[in-house]
Amino acid sequence: MTLVILITLWITLIAAIYLLLSRHALRIVIGLMLLGNAVNFIILLSGRVYSTVPAVVPYGKEIISNPANPLPQALILTAIVISFALTCFSVVLMIKLIKRLGTDDINHWREAEPLNNSGYKPSIYNDGDHDDWKKYRKDLC
């Protein structure tokens, strides 16, 4: 049983990384979702998975030895909500960018980057003299 769980976890992680390295926006969002699910799975495995004894003891019953750990389950519930919010934000951002730029290929999403012929240089390199930078570094030390 442990081997099946570990194989499932690794398949999910590998699929998530493969999709995150894609050039298409929808695949990246799906990879982000799979990565969140894999992290949730790791958190679940960090608790005692094989204990079926409930963590909450009814009033009047004796204390149970080796109960299930409720902390990973609570963390996973929180992580699911955060992952859902991140996925919704990613989908809305992806749809907006696809409508604005006309493609889902992220290699064509270079609008925020300066053009090669724009002549833009950081302000520290405008005059060619780097003494200001050296003086700034001395002030930091």
Automatic annotation (TrEMBL):
<feature type="transmembrane region" description="Helical">
    <location>
        <begin position="6"/>
        <end position="21"/>
    </location>
</feature>
<dbReference type="InterPro" id="IPR050601">
    <property type="entry name" value="CPA3_antiporter_subunitC"/>
</dbReference>
<protein>
    <submittedName>
        <fullName>Multicomponent Na+:H+ antiporter subunit C</fullName>
    </submittedName>
</protein>
<keyword id="KW-0812">Transmembrane</keyword>
<feature type="transmembrane region" description="Helical">
    <location>
        <begin position="71"/>
        <end position="95"/>
    </location>
</feature>
<comment type="similarity">
    <text>Belongs to the CPA3 antiporters (TC 2.A.63) subunit C family.</text>
</comment>
<dbReference type="Pfam" id="PF00420">
    <property type="entry name" value="Oxidored_q2"/>
</dbReference>
<keyword id="KW-0472">Membrane</keyword>
<dbReference type="GO" id="GO:0005886">
    <property type="term" value="C:plasma membrane"/>
</dbReference>
<keyword id="KW-1133">Transmembrane helix</keyword>
<dbReference type="InterPro" id="IPR039428">
    <property type="entry name" value="NUOK/Mnh_C1-like"/>
</dbReference>
<feature type="transmembrane region" description="Helical">
    <location>
        <begin position="28"/>
        <end position="51"/>
    </location>
</feature>
<keyword id="KW-1003">Cell membrane</keyword>
